[in-house]
Amino acid sequence: MEHSVTVSDGEQPFRAAANRSVLESALRENRWLPHACSQGTCGTCKIRVLCGEVDHGRVDDAVLSEAERASGLALACQASPRTDLTVAPLNEAAPAGPRHPLRDHTGTVLELADIARCTRRLVVELDEPMEFSAGQYAELIVPGSGVARQYSMANPPFESRRLEFHVRKVDGGLATEGWIFGSLRPGDRIELRGPLGQFALVRPQGEPAILIGGGTGLAPLKSIVRHALSEDLVPGIDLYHGGRGQADLYDVDFFRALEAADSRFRYHPVLSEEQWDGATGMVTDVVLDDFASCRGRSAYLCGPPAMVTAAVKALKRRRMAPRSIFKEEFTVGA
Ligand code: FES
C-alpha cells in the first residue's frame, strides 16, 4: 500500500510505501530529507507531521521523547506513513548536500583482507554502478537476517562499481564476527543499498581542508581525499588519522605515496598510546599544535563521538567557522 507525502519545500508530493520509512521512500524518489545515521540514533531526520498519521516504528526516548511524538514530531528514518502526509523537516538540508537516489544493489566480493587490528578491508564489485558523493555510506545486508549495517565507501565516486569498505570487528557481532570476519569469502554474492548520509565534501570555496579520522572513520575521508585531489577541488588537504598503536593504522603506504606524489596533500598518522618516530598524543591536540589558526579552512571529521566533539572544540578554538565543520559520528555496527 502506498501513500502520498508532501514536504513543506513546495516540491511535488512523492509516493511512500506503508512498509518503508518516510526517509527511505523519499531517497528512493530522489527527494532529499536531512538525515545522518538512518538508524534512529542521531535525531537529524526529525520531521513535524503537519497533516496525517505515522507509525513511529522503533524510537528511542532519548532521541525522540514521548512528549515530542505527542506534539507531532517523528523520525523520518523510522516512521512509516499510515495515511497521506504533509511533513516539514526540522533541520536544514546539508549545504550542497549529495543528491543521488537510493537504490538496491547486488555485487560480488572481490577482496577481503586484514589491514589493521580487528579491521578488514572489504571490496565489492557491483553488478551496476552506484552514484554517490565522497563521504556517503551504504547499508550492507547480512544474509538470512534482513539486518543492515552501515559502512562508508572508502573509494572515490569515480570508482562507482568497485566499492571499498573498512570494517571494525565487534566481538559477538552478527554482521562482523558472524559474517564479514566469519563466513564471508571472496566470490560470495552480496546485497546492499545506498547511497545514504549527508556527510560529504561540500563544494569548497577554495578553502584548504583538515580531515580528522579515528579508527575506521578513515574510510569516508579516504574517499574525500582521492575525490578532492583527482577533481582538484581543494588547494590543500591535511589528513590526520588517530589510533592507539601502530597496529591500528592502515593504508599508511598508500597515503605516504600520495603525499610524495602530490604536494597538495599531507598525511599525519597519530598514536595515542605508543611511542614511535611519528606524532603522539590525542589527534586533536596534534592538530592544535600544528595550526596557529584554522580560519579560512574547512574540516571533515569522522570517528568516535568523543573524538568528534574534541575536534570540533579544537577547531573552534583555532577560529574555524562552525559552518565550515562537517562531521560524521561513528557508530560501531556489530
Ligand atoms: Fe534518523 Fe539519525 S535518527 S537519521
What's the total helix number?
7
The radius of gyration computed from the alpha-carbon positions, rounded to a whole number of angstroms, is 20 Å
The total strand number stands at: 19
Record the strand order, biggest sheet.
11-10-13-8-9-12
Summed over residues and divided by their number, the pLDDT gives a mean of 94
Low-confidence stretches: none
The topology string of helices and strands comes to EEHEEHEEEEEEEEHEEHEHEEHEHE
Portion in beta strands: 25-35%
List the bound ligands.
FE2/S2 (inorganic) cluster
Helix content: 10-25%
Which class do the helix and strand fractions yield?
alpha/beta
Give an overview of the whole structure.
- This protein has 334 residues and is an alpha/beta fold.
- The chain has helices at residues 22-28, 66-70, 176-183, 218-230, 252-261, 283-290, 305-317, and strands at 2-7, 14-17, 46-51, 54-55, 73-75, 80-81, 85-89, 103-116, 119-126, 137-141, 148-152, 162-168, 189-196, 209-214, 237-243, 265-271, 279-280, 298-303, 325-329.
- The strands form four sheets. It has a six-stranded antiparallel β-sheet with strand order 11-10-13-8-9-12. The chain has a six-stranded parallel β-sheet with strand order 17-16-15-14-18-19, sandwiched between helices.
- α7 (305-317) links the parallel β18 (298-303) and β19 (325-329).
- The chain is globular, with a radius of gyration of 20 Å.
- The mean pLDDT is 94.
- Bound molecules: FE2/S2 (inorganic) cluster.
- FE2/S2 (inorganic) cluster is lined by residues 35-38, 40-45, 63, 75, 77.
